[in-house]
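Sequence in, structure out. Go.
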Amino acid sequence: MTKKQVFRELTLDEMLGDSIVQLLMRRDGVTASEIRMLFHHAARAGA
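Output:
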C-alpha cells in the first residue's frame, strides 16, 4: 500500500520567508511589505 501525498499551497508568510524568494526579492529591489500591499489591493479589487 502506498501513501497518498497531499500538497497544499504555501501561505504568503511561508512564501516570503523562503530564502530563495528573499534572494530574488532583494535582487529585484522588492520588499515583503510591498508584496503584502499588492496582495491586499488585489484582494480588495476582487482579482
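Check: The chain has a mean pLDDT of 93. Helices lie at 12-16, 19-28, 32-45.
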